[in-house]
Amino acid sequence: MTAASAEGRSDEARRGAGGGAGAGRRALVVGAGLAGCLLAVYLARDGWKVALRERRGDPRQAGAGGGRSINLAISARGLQALRRAGLEEAVLAEGVRMPGRMIHPVSGGTFFTPYSADPTRAINSVSRGGLNRLLLDAAEREPLVEVRFDRRAIDCDLARGRVEFESPGGTREHEEADLVVATDGAYSAIRGAMQRSERFDYSQEYLGHGYKELHVPPVAAGSGPHAPWAMDPAALHIWPRGGSMMIALPNRDGSFTCTLFWPWEGPASFAEVATAPQAREHFRRVYPDAVPLMPTLEEDFERNPVGALVTVRCRPWTRGGRVALLGDAAHAIVPFYGQGANASFEDCEALLDALRAHPEVPAALAAYESARKENADAIAALALRNFIEMRDLAGRRSHRLRKWIEHLLARLMPDSFEPLYDRVSFGTRPYAEALATARRHDRGFLVAGWVGAAALAVLLLVGAAWILREAVGGAAPTTPEEPTTTEPAP
Amino acid sequence: MTAASAEGRSDEARRGAGGGAGAGRRALVVGAGLAGCLLAVYLARDGWKVALRERRGDPRQAGAGGGRSINLAISARGLQALRRAGLEEAVLAEGVRMPGRMIHPVSGGTFFTPYSADPTRAINSVSRGGLNRLLLDAAEREPLVEVRFDRRAIDCDLARGRVEFESPGGTREHEEADLVVATDGAYSAIRGAMQRSERFDYSQEYLGHGYKELHVPPVAAGSGPHAPWAMDPAALHIWPRGGSMMIALPNRDGSFTCTLFWPWEGPASFAEVATAPQAREHFRRVYPDAVPLMPTLEEDFERNPVGALVTVRCRPWTRGGRVALLGDAAHAIVPFYGQGANASFEDCEALLDALRAHPEVPAALAAYESARKENADAIAALALRNFIEMRDLAGRRSHRLRKWIEHLLARLMPDSFEPLYDRVSFGTRPYAEALATARRHDRGFLVAGWVGAAALAVLLLVGAAWILREAVGGAAPTTPEEPTTTEPAP
User: Fold this and answer.
1) Which one of A203, A313, A334 would you mutate to disrupt binding with B, by most B Cβ within 10 Å of its Cβ?
2) What's the whole-number mean pLDDT along residues B75-103?
3) What interface predicted TM-score (ipTM) does this complex get?
4) Model confidence, pTM
């Protein structure tokens, strides 16, 4: 049915093409971000006639809206999903491998902590804009995908699968489909319509920290060991500062995209450090080694906005038997595990699998939700937890000791011990399983810590007793030996 | 400044009138439900020029929309707030005193549990519609209050304190004020506008149970010990059935307003028991003593809708320095502690106090929120907790034992022990304090339970040993006595 080019496709993707599960049915994908584009490719190759709609203009023409994008860290889950669309190699070619973290203490110097005991494992720094353009190109190459920009979803009739769109000129139009997937992000309009329907559980919870993008440009060739990069590009750089932090992810052009995570209010917050001179002074004290690498620090700090970080949870993800939420629209998470895009790509796989397994859309959507909901909750919890680790612990000895023990255990018993980071970033078993294992390991480390402390205490006591005995024994004999000195009266 | 009649006013209310904290300023109160009306009275008597707006028609003309209203249980907090507006006596005159619960086990018979060790303490069954009409009359008597109906708030410019209203004909108008208070309920449109602003924490969480209103009509004079009531009117009647329950609250006309609380899905749910014949059969088995009292059971069951029960939490409650949420708009709770209206009336008091203490509205709103937020969270938690108690425990011996012990302790040491129910319903100390104390008492009862169980176990062991010893002693003499029977061989 489709005459799609087979260029760069995996076997599975080819198998789906030309008369798959979707044959003849219409899908409306609302939002041409990362997940929307990948899903459109998946569905089209399964025979769905896909209308992909985006509220913004075409990012390939207008230039992506900069200044608010944290670089992505694409890892095993994302790569697996991209592979199904034959896009893994193309994405990896645009990324920079990061096999570990480079920690920058305030006192100067740096140290490297690998992400895994297996040195071949790395996450991949990819620019969000670049990946979005690549995925849009892939979606437009599909003959069954029709992409239209400047169409903002404003409402949805959930029972009919009918979405109302508004164009920048204010004209309104409706579109209907057998399957409507909302990939319109953390502030989803389709989810808004669900929220107005009965018995929709929903929460949005903002972090007390905001973020701001900064920039480290490339350096001249020969001006350092990593040129054109100003720092080692084979790492995610972290400046952990307790209540706040900065990170930097490498780009292929030799630059780094930096992100500040600071509290909105209070000490060392965006409220306190608000102007360019204040920022310069603050950086001089708190991020001294970064200052020489950031020639446009003051301009960037003044120009770039402070973004908010939100966790969104809701239930159900599907309504009316034909409308479903996917990606950030269903489960926006904070960025600290680098899993937002990876989780959304996994959603696409789960929805594709469910649509193949269940001929009726309502049953497929129910199966999709039940496969993904607990995993979305798990990665949301893991992402919040990793923020504490990154800003508070990454610079501490106890953290490095735990990492070292984890990697040792992973090397000694690779079949039975896999550290949390490996499970999340280098494995593809469900997030919920990784979270459950992490909680078990936490208890293990806690018990081991207490047992270790108790053993140390016993050892110290025994040692002290021995020293005391030696000391006392030298000065005055002990009781059992007394009779030999107290001789019977004659 | 105002020529308001002093009829039925307390001293404090009179003191506020004619040039108080609000003198010359304009307030817009969005929603003429219970809290909106009381607040309008408060503000007008303090000199505010109050615009009170309501999306529905005038309930005194149209007749209140029936079939979805659980009766209210007005208790100490609500009465105190009404007293400040001189309305306590009028409300009490419309209510029916309920000093305790009447439990109806499935096996037949009933038993009464008083709410307090102090028999003079009672909560008051009041119809929502009747109370709303009474409060509307009170608001309209204030010369500084202008009430308009059929004006539905659809949006709000938070920075300007400018609300957009729509009338049933579709015309739209804007109104602005120095102070805008959203009393537009659990599905507040003003809160919707806040939710679209940055960094607004919000959650709505539905109970797995819905509710449906039923009716017990008055009986003929002389037809029973409580005529015209079909049951004792001096109690809140409960049919606890584990996973579900029915309650009935008396009205002054001799009728009872009954409410079913059943799961939406599963056994004994609204999904399973859906038709009038199914309801009749279910009632015959599960609420047998109620069936003869409900001649219109089948009609009521078919006609009345199933309502949803939601807990709404959000933060902040105020935005832009002049807009605040109050009552259900800020903190919708489930009805199982009978505290929804009481808590909203307390909000009105807190806002009035804050506006008197702080001449600037933004400072007053901040003070109001900080006085109320943790208490709203506490009563939300207490209300959810009381649902479990009412449906699962009210019929159990362990629950009656605990109530008995609590009331005994309250009688023995009235100064140091006050049971939770008394703190919430008969006291006016903050809800958060009541919740903290309840958690302490829970731990106390748990420890006492274990200590009691251990003591019992020891007693049983000692007893068993004694019995064994006696038994063995009776059948065969113990060793020391043996020599007396085993005589030396001759």
Assistant:
1) A203
2) 97
3) 0.79
4) 0.83
